[in-house]
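Pasting as-is:
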Amino acid sequence: MKFWTRNLILLATLILISVWSKPIIADDTNTQTNTSGSNTNITGGYESTTTNNNDGQTNTTTDNSTTTSTTNGAGIPPPSANSPSYSSMSQDVCSMGVSGSVSTGIVGISGGKHFIDENCERIKLAKVLQDFGMKVASVAVLCQDARVHAAMQSAGTPCPFNGKIGAEAQALWDKYPELRPDYDLYLAKKEIISKVDAELLAQQLKEAEEEAARVAAEEARQAEIEARIAAEEEAKLNEEISNIDVIVDSEPIRIHE
């Protein structure tokens, strides 16, 4: 009898505790988001409450737990963009390859292109014409380069012009300067030469004016000196004449029989 009574009391106590105590609420949220290479996993919202009623005393314990875990992979760069390699394929081809690439955090771009080396072609053409005995044509090809044309002008051997060479070619280049490959450089040099010539001319005129003023001042000073000397000589002569007159006046007049 005592055994059953004790079990009933324990069961009743457990039922009362279950009714009086606050239900345990568990909120477990597991969310995963994928955006542009970023993974985010958040777990939390767990709350636990326990109430004990013993001899009229109530003890309440609350446990709140939140856990957050974040993994971000957005900073990982994409694979690098490599520049393509270019080759001229032959030593007798006047071309060169240029390539480049750009890599960003989002995209990588690369590309390349062949470019013709006109200076190389000009040299090869001049050599072939020289081998064929076409010396004037060979020089004319080289003269298409502005640097060669300017160098020939500076050396006093102007480039050919429509079959003319020497002084005749120079006269045509002076008549049609717009046809020069170094026309812009020619205009710049001409402007500098004109400016310097104008400055030299102004300096020469200034020096000539200063020399003329100096000569005029020297002549005026010399004339003044000569005038002063002439005045002194004239005064001295007048004084001598006055002395002669006084002597003549003081001598007795004698009458010769």
